[in-house]
Amino acid sequence: RRLACGDVEGRLETIFGRVRAIQAKSGRFDMLLCVGNFFGSSSEAEWAEYRTGAKKAPIPTYVLGANNQDTLSYFPDVSGCELAENITYLGRRGVFSGCSGLHIAYLSGTEAQEQPAPAHSFSAKDVAELKTSLFSTPNFRGVDILLTSPWPRDVGTYANSAGEIDTKKCGSKLVSDLAASLKPRYHFAALEKAYYERLPYRNHTVLQETPQHVTRFIALADVGNTSKKKYLYAFSIVPMSSMDPAELVKQPQDVTENPYRKLRKEAAKAKAEEEPACQFFFDLNKHQGKKRPSDGKQGGDCQPKQAKKPPQPTGPCWFCLASPEVEKHLVVSIGTHCYLALAKGGLLPDHVLILPIGHYQSVVDLSSEVLEEVTKYKAALKEFFRSKGKRYVLFERNYRSQHLQLQVIPVPLDLCTSEDIKESFITQAQEQQIELLEIPEHSDITQVAQPGMPYFYVELDTGEKLFHRIRGRFPLQFGRAVLASAAVLALPERADWRQCAAPRPEEAAQARAFRRDFQPF
């Protein structure tokens, strides 16, 4: 059983008095871990009693180093040392391993804003060396606890609110990188005079990596604060090395996506660019470069597959182009297998639908030639909207619908980024207990969904894709509501298409304007 606390600021009697009270009530704890500022500007009087041995900490106490120039003198040895009986300075950076097998990684100081880094700051080199020392450990899976004074930047992404703290501006990017790499089961930080217990987050990418343990980030307030914000946190933890692997990787119901996904993706891209390019060659002497026939026999010529005819609708269909129910004044482009139409009651005037001419229920039901034309329309719309200073978002709901409708909505580039849009989908999905997973980069919807399976699917202009398998009820307006929300288009009044239907002459004029500007392929 462990205790963690935020900025002590030299209030030793307050923190140790609180620890004594807790132990008297709940039994003994094994250690106290202190993050943030252990010493303050007026610490000397209280500290002298502990330093001289007149008083003793009631529990083994481990502290991080200075975060400013004023308190540097309290830490005589940069590599760590005993400051007083039962009070130990861990050091500038490293890993503390207790006799129980618990692994505690630590990084003292704040992120350096200049080079060379001051003695109370850490640099990218410090973070890299700490990561390297751990990655060299055989079968490294992560650490049990990570202690830093600053918060990690962006820790609030996909998560519950951090109150007044803006997690996109607060904290350190280097700490985010460290947390993403070390995958701590608990991460404690301070300095912001706030208490924030983030929802646990995943340390693996669903559908791409095997499940791993989750991380719980906890920021603690300053000791004895007048606002009565929580500054002391009690928790029990069994060392990772002693746990059953299946128990270790159990995912709690409130788990969220990893807040550092974007950072990890950028790091992976940078690493890939550093690696030497590989060239792969086909052996053209075998089969003379011809495709092997499906029966496995040698030979070059094979008959092309007959195009599969789409199934016929069981009743009137509003979207089969040959149907009298189609509102043809909304059609803006017709291809060989697909057509493009403005959405009725569109979220925006240039909200369009990509629709197959024949009757197909979903993307996974499409024949290869129809899918090829859908891809061409998507590329043309992406280029068209970019020329207008917009990025497209595409989604499909294969649930309570009988004809495929790919909804394509343009979002102004200066309004929000693709990452913001993705975050909005994931956050709002979590709020409604919808598990929205990211499809691997080089995969597509046809590899994760089977024909007839209900699903919801999102595709961003970056190529990133999100997927939810619908197993029960699903909000019909979910995709539209996310894009209409304050985080994206800020048009909540247009979340329901039935409230947005325009008179037929107005719809026809919008279609003519779109048709005039749009060049398909």
| CATH architectural label of the largest domain | 4-Layer Sandwich
Query: What's the level 1 CATH class of the largest domain?
Result: Alpha Beta
Number of domains: 2
Strand content: 15-25%
Low-confidence spans: pLDDT under 50, at least 5 residues?
Answer: 276-307
Structure description:
This is CWF19-like protein 1. It is a single chain. This protein is an alpha/beta fold. It folds into 2 domains: about 1-265, Purple Acid Phosphatase, chain A, domain 2, CATH 3.60.21; about 330-520, 2-Layer Sandwich (HIT family, subunit A). It is built from 10 helices and 22 strands. The chain has helices at about 10-25, 45-50, 125-135, 175-180, 245-250, 260-275, 370-385, 420-430, 480-485, 505-515, and strands spanning about 1-5, 30-35, 60-65, 80-85, 85-90, 95, 105, 110, 120, 145-150, 185-190, 195, 215-220, 230-235, 330-335, 340, 350-355, 390-400, 405-410, 435-440, 455-460, 465-470. The strands form 4 sheets. Strands 15-16-17-19-18-21-22-20 form an 8-stranded antiparallel β-sheet, sandwiched between helices. A 6-stranded mixed β-sheet has the order 4-5-3-2-1-14, with no helix packed on it. The relative contact order is 0.08.
